[in-house]
What does this fold into?
Amino acid sequence: MKKPLFTGACTALVTPFLDGEVNYPMMEQLLRRQIDAGIRAVVVCGTTGEAPTLSDDEKLELFHRAKSYVGSDCMIIAGTGSNCTSHAAELSLAAEQLGVDALLIVSPYYNKAAPEGLVAHYLTIAHTVSLPIIAYNVPTRTGVDIPVSVCKRLSSIPNMAGIKEAAMDVRKVTKICRECGPDFAVWSGNDDLTVPSIALGAQGVISVLSNILPTEMQAMAQAALAGDLDTAAALQQELQPLAELLFCEPNPIPVKASMKYIGYDCGIPRLPLTELSKENKEKLKNALGR
It folds into this structure.
């Protein structure tokens, strides 16, 4: 049995902007805060990082600066997915050459690939790089759910480390763990399902909420992994209202507003995403105050 790429909480980091441009000094502040809170893995340029509106040059600069800043203190997982297989492979290779530790690759969106296409997509990228790859299943955004049968086939590829599962169905965690075995890890992609997912075999969570509360998310995940489900469940219940509010509008609109409220002004999202509505700002402020 090989060791999972990481266990516990991994933060899907927001990309901070200043006057519409990437704010690299703020990014370093965010990374330092995560490391100080005990987070040992961070996704750069995922969904929460607004990957769709970042250029390849911006992504590669973010990967380079993030890894240069954290060194060996934290794993940098680069979001290099695309709905064009050749583009994803090229970006993944460029990220590998910059020294990142692993890749997070979302399933092809909009194209609606069939199972054979999904397998071929990941196989092509896996043959292009030597880095560990985490597949990312988020059917509410991509339009396609990666089936368990595809996960089973991916699990035989040596550098496929596992899957970020965000299909909102904890039953699927059980099925993937049963069909793919212990060498193909599952990480929850939903903060509000972290503890149930770990209880069913997941190795942790790739989290939005840990941008705001990294210490608490890590404590919750580690308690669940240690089998202390009473503590984990209590934390899950405590954090649940805020976790739900972070999706009152499309991610990362609410979490970027939250970061400003806690003293880290990361700017507003790039279009077509907009600022959080006035009504939801009040709800979020109240929740953060509590």
